[in-house]
Specification:
The protein has 164 residues and is an alpha+beta fold. 39% of the residues lie in helices and 22% in strands. The relative contact order is 0.16.
Amino acid sequence: MPVVGLDYALDGAGFNGSGRERMKDQESARAARSGSAESVETVQLEGGMEVPAPLARAIDLVKDRKGRDMLLLDLRGISNATDYFLLVTGTSDTHVKAVADHVLEELRDDGVKPMHVEGLRTGRWVLMDYIDFVVHVFHPAAREFYQLERLWGDAPTVAFADES
């Protein structure tokens, strides 16, 4: 009987040998940040939720590029992987890439660099992992298919109105 499961998948013998290293890097980065003397500046959103300033900036940047159906999921206390998911829909592959590129470039200019980025070339689903928050920019078909808001349905949310 073949060995299956998360341990196998994350093991070097599994299909995702680099996954274990990435998780270790992420855990180290989170531990270093939580143990550091510098505190992360927070911003209060319209709904009253306090978020890290770089996440609030990412929200504004998505609005700049007319990202649609923006939803913030508060995963604190639900997931150890990250504190927030920002879900956004683009209208096409090109729009998905434009939104993601804008967030990446502007946050990088602010000194905030992602730990990991996936999907930028294809434009169907771009994932930008900033450790404390993850920005997901979806093509409409990918967002409908994966339904992350249903998967994390027990998380508190803040929905943002689409900009005209």
